[in-house]
Amino acid sequence: MESSRSFPPLVVSGLFIISGISALIYQMVWQRALLTLYGSNAESVAMVVAAFLVGLGFGSLLGGLLSKVTSISPVVCFAICELGVGVYGLVSLDFFKWAASHTSLADSLATGLLAFALVFLPTLLMGATLPLLVSYQTREFAHAGKAVSSLYFVNTLGAALGAFFAVFYCLGRFGMSGSVRIAALLNLLVTVIVLGVWIFKGRRAS
Q1: Rounded to an integer, what distance in angstroms lies between the CA atom of residue 194 and that of residue 198?
Q2: Cα(79)–Cα(98) distance, rounded to whole angstroms?
Q3: Angle at the Cα of 193 from the Cα atoms of 191 and 195, rounded to 5 degrees
Q4: Rounded Cα distance, 134 and 67, in Å
Q5: Spatial distance between the Cα atoms of 180 and 173, rounded to a whole number of angstroms
Q6: At 2, phi and psi to the nearest 5?
Q7: CA–CA separation, 194 vs 199, rounded Å?
Q8: Could you give the C-alpha distances from 89 to 3, 66, 119, 174, in angstroms and in order?
Q9: Residue 40, exposed/middle/buried by CB under 10 A (0-12, 13-18, 19+)?
Q10: Domains in the chain, ordered, with CATH?
Q11: If you count DSSP H runs as helices and E runs as strands, how many of each does the chain have, helices first?
């Protein structure tokens, strides 16, 4: 049954599109940044791609576990994940440069593993968002199949828009640092909207 703090499905879908856009901007920028720092050898390329896939996979498991915690709403957990990704995004390029400066003599495998480690945490948080929102939608509206299909669709749509935006506009106009700031602002926007509405509705209900 719908609660007093429910978000309309269209609002959730819009927020998840924004989340997907930011995720693909990060992927495009981080992959380019890491390859610039560590070289475009096969090991680095493979590790960056693998880190995104593994992070998203383990993130899905993490999101499933978090969705079972009854003391906090899945949509609030989603907002916290978005906040974590945004904060990491703001410092990511400087962090990458710092890590590269301390591993300049490492071999190809070591640099590939480092590239993996550098993007694993944020992709873990990204991967957690889908199961969290599916759990939220299912709890509020009791349509699991529709929740999964619609959220997967809008997040994939957001990813496609993010890839297009990053390649054809964002990177060329704002560079890598400006692009990650835009992606981080999108994460923070989602966080502010979710937590702001959640707090506002909670006060009205009390």
Answers
A1: 6
A2: 28
A3: 65
A4: 9
A5: 12
A6: -70, 135
A7: 9
A8: 33, 22, 10, 15
A9: exposed
A10: 9-205 (1.20.1250.20)
A11: 6, 0
Q: Can you give the three-state secondary structure of 151-178, one letter per residue?
A: HHHHHHHHHHHHHHHHHHHHHHHHHHHH
The amino acid at residue 165 is: F
Question: Six-digit token pair at 104?
Answer: 């300049």
Give the up-direction half-sphere exposure of residue 6: CA atoms within 13 A in the CB hemisphere: 14
Rounded-to-integer distance, Cα 32 and Cα 160, Å: 18
**pLDDT above 90 coverage of the chain, percent:** 34
What pLDDT tens digit does each residue of the chain (206 aa) get?
A: 445 567 777 888 899 999 999 999 998 899 888 877 766 666 667 777 888 889 889 999 999 898 888 788 888 999 999 999 999 999 999 998 888 787 665 666 677 778 788 889 999 999 999 889 888 888 776 666 777 788 888 888 888 988 888 888 898 899 999 999 999 999 999 999 999 888 877 666 65
- The token pair at 178 is 């400006």
